[in-house]
Amino acid sequence: MHIRPDLKGKSVYFFPTLDRYFEGILMFDAKEKKAYVYSVKNDRKYETFFKWMIGLKNQKLFKGKKSSLTTIFLESNPTSPSIASILRESDYPLYWKSSMLMSLEDIFMLIQENILLGGKFAEITAQKINGGLELYFFKKEGKSLEKKILFIAKGILLEYEVYILNHVLQGTHLPFPVKAGKRTLNDIKDLIQYVFSLNICYGQSTTGLEDVTYVRGTQLVNNAQNSSKEHTPFAFLEKQGQPDEAYRHVDCMFIVKSKNKNICENCEKLKKTMQQIHRRILTGKNSIKVIHASKNLLIEKVKEQRKSY
Fold it and tell me: Organism's domain of life (predicted)?
C-alpha cells in the first residue's frame, strides 16, 4: 500500500453496506517507510486495504466481495471521495450511485449557507449534537422557540423527529416516515419547508371570557367520571395572566390544518364549553361543584361562609 506520509493518522471508512461502516486509521512507519491500516474494530494492523477487508470478512462482519477502491472512503459518508483519490486513481465511479444522499454535515452546511446569504431559511439556526443535528425555528416577533427538527444519523441513513412547542408531532402529520432512511437534498428541503410553513395552535384564547378562568381556574374538568371514578381534566390553562392566555385541549394537535382557522379542531371545541360557562355566570346560574371550582373561587366561598357565622 502506497500513500503519502502526510496522511498519517487520517481515518478511513469501509462501507460493506450503505448503512454500516468500519473505521480504520492510516499509519506510517518512518523507519520501515511502510504504510498500514489500523483496524479500530478488531485492534489489528493490516498491510493493505484488501487484507483489512479480508480480516473483517473472516470475522463474519460482512458477506460478499467488495472493491477497496470503491467502498473505502475518506469520510463516514459513502458519497464522499473514496481512497482512489489518495491513490491517484481518478477514473473510479461512485460505488453507491447516491450522490444526492444527505449527511448531517450536508444539512448543517445547507442551513449555514442560507443564513449567511439571507436565503429562504434565514430564520432557522442549526446546532450539532452527539450523533445528530437540531434545527430551531423561532417565533418571528420574539426569541421563543416554536418548532424543532431533530436528525439522528444511523450510518448513512437519517431518522428524524419534529417538535412543536416541545411536543413531538405525530408521524401522521409529517410528509414522509420518520424512521431511518435515505434522505436526498430534495427530501431535506421539502421537510424544512413543510415545518417552516406549519401554523401552530396556541389554544383557545380566554380574551372576553376571563370570568371563566376565575370560576374554573387552571383546568376544565369533565362532569362524567372515568373507570376509576375520577373527574379528569380535558383542558389546561397556559400563560396565565398574560395577553396570550389560553386553554389547551388535552388532545391538542399543535398544528392548524385549516387555512381559515387559527387553532386546531380539538381546541376549537373548547370555545363552545367556555361560552356556556360564561352565559351561566352572566345569568347568575353559576353554582359549581368543588371539582370544577378554581382556587380563587373556593377561597371566596370559604370567606363568605365564615362571615355568616
Answer: Eukaryota
Is there a contact between 12 and 26 (Cβ–Cβ < 8 Å)? yes
Query: How many other C-beta atoms are found inside a 10 Å radius of the C-beta of residue 165?
Result: 18
Is the pTM of the predicted complex or chain greater than 0.85? no
Residue range 127-186, pLDDT digits in tens: 999 989 999 998 876 678 999 999 999 887 899 999 999 999 999 999 989 999 988 878
pLDDT, one tens digit per residue, over 175-213 is: 989 999 988 878 888 899 899 999 999 999 999 998 888
Give the up-direction half-sphere exposure of residue 282: CA atoms within 13 A in the CB hemisphere: 9
Cell of 183: 434522505
HEC string for the chain: CCCCHHHCCCEEEEEEECCEEEEEEEEEECCCCEEEEEECCCCEEECCHHHHHHHHHHCCCCCCCCCHHHHEECCCCCCCCEHHHCCCCCCCCCCCCCCCECCHHHHHHHHHHHHHHCCCCCCEEEEEECCEEEEEEECCCCCCEEEEEEEEEECCEEEEEEEECCEECCHHHCCCCCCCECCEHHHHHHHHHHHHHCCECCCEECCCCHHHHHHHCCEEECCCCCCCCCCCEEEEEECCCCCCCEEEECCCCCECCCCCCCCCHHHHHHHHHHHHHHHHHHCCCCCCCCCCCCHHHHHHHHHHHHHHC
Buried b (16+ CB within 10 A) or exposed e, 185-205: eebbeebbeebeebebbbbbb
Opening angle at CA 253, ends 251 and 254, nearest 5: 120
Among 63, 68, 84, 65, which residue's Cα sits nearest to residue 14? 68
Residue 80, pLDDT score: 75
